[in-house]
Design brief:
The chain is α+β, with helices and mostly antiparallel strands. The protein has helices at residues 3-7, 9-12, 26-42, 56-66, 115-121, 123-133, 197-205, 260-267, 272-277, and strands at 44-47, 75-77, 98-100, 102-105, 139-140, 148-153, 159-162, 169-175, 179-180, 183-186, 213-215, 222-225, 231-234, 237-238, 243-251. The model has no long low-confidence stretch (mean pLDDT 91).
Length: 289
């Protein structure tokens, strides 16, 4: 029995404000309407205190116990997670490199009875997320490593500027950094048909009219984000406490599994499922990454 089942959904989630099991209620419709509006306007929305304050420490402790299992490897990357040695035009933003120092606890290291596992697989939670994104339904990733992960940014490290592989990103801060670790983003800086390399380069160079936005987040907040088209990062973490966040990865179609190269980059290993589908992954767009 999962933590979520043992404690019950109503005890863990603030169902007074987020009535997951009553999606037709006026409160639920208001939540969805606000989320859709903010996602359309800014590419991001936050459901504050989604986890009740009384259980935020349970959430923190569970994820903190998992954090030592994160695969950690400092890598030189660009915003597209492509080969940094590839030949690119002189002013191409892919020529800018950063040190990626965040780490991930893979899905197969997260117990099924944990709170975040219970949430990820809960039908009512999935339904709310799909509604907020304006989708008929969402599917859990078939990927055995990247469907549900814990992102760990240790002091002195950062998760540099990047785009997500998935169009729809769902995350929850479980432990904030002592200092730094801010979520910064440039909403809808590119589209499925236009990379807008000049705009991306200007942000990386800290110039131009496009200034990154900073999103205040607290442990227990649920963040819904269109990370495929919005450049974003977690700024360097300082102090003595790491930043932890759970990432719930869903797709509009079933059976999605990550590539061998990207999976090995993030987790240091692959599983037979990745090898079986290599070269046959379907893409919803033709963007560089």
């Amino acid at each position: 029995m999962s933590t979520l089942q043992a404690i019950t959904l109503d005890q863990v989630v603030d169902t007074d404000h987020y009535p997951l099991t009553d999606p037709e209620s006026a409160e639920a419709r208001a939540v969805v309407a606000r989320a859709r509006r903010e996602l359309a306007e800014a590419g991001c929305t936050v459901l504050p205190d989604f986890i009740r304050p009384s259980h935020q420490e349970v959430l923190r402790q569970e994820c903190a116990a998992l954090a030592p299992q994160a695969y950690f490897d400092v890598e030189t990357v660009n915003v597209y997670n492509t080969d940094v040695d590839a030949e690119l035009p002189e002013h191409h933003p892919g020529r800018r490199t950063f040190e990626r120092g965040n780490a991930f606890v893979a899905r197969d290291r997260i117990p099924g009875d944990s709170l975040i596992s219970g949430l990820y697989a809960h039908e009512a939670f999935q339904h709310l997320v799909a509604d907020c994104f304006g989708l008929p339904r969402l599917y859990e990733l078939a990927d055995p490593l990247s469907g549900l992960v814990l992102n760990v940014v240790r002091p002195g490290m950062e998760h540099p500027w990047h785009f997500d592989t998935n169009e729809y990103t769902v995350s929850m801060l479980t432990q904030d950094a002592q200092e730094g670790g801010a979520f910064e983003y440039c909403p809808n800086i590119r589209s499925a048909t236009d990379e807008r390399f000049d705009d991306v380069r200007d942000v990386l160079d800290g110039r131009g009219a496009r200034k990154p936005e900073r999103l205040p987040l607290r442990p227990g907040d649920l963040q819904l984000f269109k990370g495929r088209y919005s450049l974003h990062r977690v700024s360097p973490v300082r102090g003595d406490r790491a930043r932890h966040s759970a990432i719930f990865a869903y797709s509009e179609r079933p059976g999605v599994i990550g590539s061998v190269a990207r999976t090995r980059q993030l987790f240091g290993r692959v599983r037979p499922e990745h090898l079986a589908v290599e070269g046959r992954a379907a893409r919803a767009d033709h963007l560089l990454d």
